[in-house]
Amino acid sequence: MTLAQKKSIFVSLGKFLSQFSEKGNQKIAGLAHNDAFFDAFADLIQLSQSHNGWYTPEQVNFAIQSWSEALTEENLDQWLSAYEIKAHQAKTIGLILAGNIPLVGFHDFLCVLMSGHKALVKLSSNDQKLLPFIADYLMALEPALKDYIAFVEGKMEHFDAVIATGSNNTARYFEYYFKDKPAIIRKSRNSVAVLDGSESKEQMVALGEDVFRYFGLGCRNVSKIFIPRDYNFDQFFNGMFPYQDVVKYEKYANNYDYNKAVFLMSNFKLLDNEFLTIKEDPGYASPISSVFYEFYDDLTEVQERLKREQDQIQCVVSNSLIENSIPFGKTQKPELWDYADNVDTMVFLQSL
């Protein structure tokens, strides 16, 4: 397959995915293989929560819509224009995927196929249905992809390189197990917001999206805020208020009750709005239903610290206070050229 053919296939996938949203599914006439896949995918979205309690239809639809917006001809052209992808012998790339949020491993899967390699995928037990369905649709669009996509259970064997995502603990295992293979090993990271009190109400509501989307389970979710010492917390809580219904979801509510109780028994000083606690803490990885905060006196100190500790940070949100930060409300809609851990996956794949 040529690069142009692969682009066309993924543009078609984007159009297929665009039919599904939280507001309701709308079938588009004339899409290839739509009759065979539309109803089945709609059913899978509704059933996803039975496979993983965090995968509510709302969250799954958001992930699907995000990918439908990313997989356009314009975006693919802009992304791939940075690389000179030449014909080469296809290598088999082992993909060990996370399952914390829906389709979290799709970008790695896309990169492998667009670079001309074969994807040997080991799914997380938390996300075993969505990507295989999408792979089936892709192979229906282009049967030649059957030679480039495989899913494996149990031990992964017969691969040339690996991209593995996991916790800090599993990363140590990956680094040992794959020490003789070219590899990208991803560890736990968190995202932060840097505020100065001048943010608008709309920006603070958008920050709530960065905090609560996927119930805070993603590495791109904001789990900590840096604030000036005289910060008015009413600004923060007013921005979070529109997301109060999150506590009506049982799994989230259980985490909120548990983590709040642990904090209180430990005599930690908390601020609480009955669905989110915020706690002063130097760490980055706050538990579900909680956000850490830390005061600053000098913004330069925050900038320097984030540079020193960049291996712990996935992305930074601010109103242009920090270099290369992203706008409020955009953490869970990365562009195709936004790479996890700032490691260019396409460059890695082209080097093999």
Task: Tell me about this structure.
The protein is an alpha/beta fold and 352 residues long. Helices cover 39% and strands 15% of the residues. It has 12 helices and 11 strands. The protein has helices spanning 3-17, 34-51, 57-70, 73-80, 106-114, 130-141, 168-177, 201-212, 233-240, 250-265, 299-308, 345-350, and strands at 92-96, 118-122, 149-151, 161-165, 183-186, 190-194, 222-228, 270-272, 277-280, 290-296, 313-318. The strands form 2 sheets. A 6-stranded mixed β-sheet has the order 8-9-10-7-6-11, sandwiched between helices. A 5-stranded parallel β-sheet has the order 3-2-1-4-5, with helices on both faces. The protein is globular, with a radius of gyration of 21 Å. It starts with a helix and ends with a helix. 36% of the residues are buried.
Spans of at least 5 consecutive residues whose pLDDT stays below 50 are none
Helical segment count: 12
Strand order of the largest sheet: 8-9-10-7-6-11
Task: Tally the beta strands.
Answer: 11
Calculate the mean pLDDT score and round it: 95
The helix-and-strand class reads alpha/beta
Estimate the helix proportion, in percent: 25-40%
Report the span from N to C terminus: 19 Å
Strand content bin:
15-25%
Order of helices and strands: HHHHEHEHEEHEEHEHHEEEHEH
Q: What would you call the shape?
A: globular
The Rg value, from CA coordinates, equals 21 Å
Describe the main β-sheet briefly. 6 strands, mixed
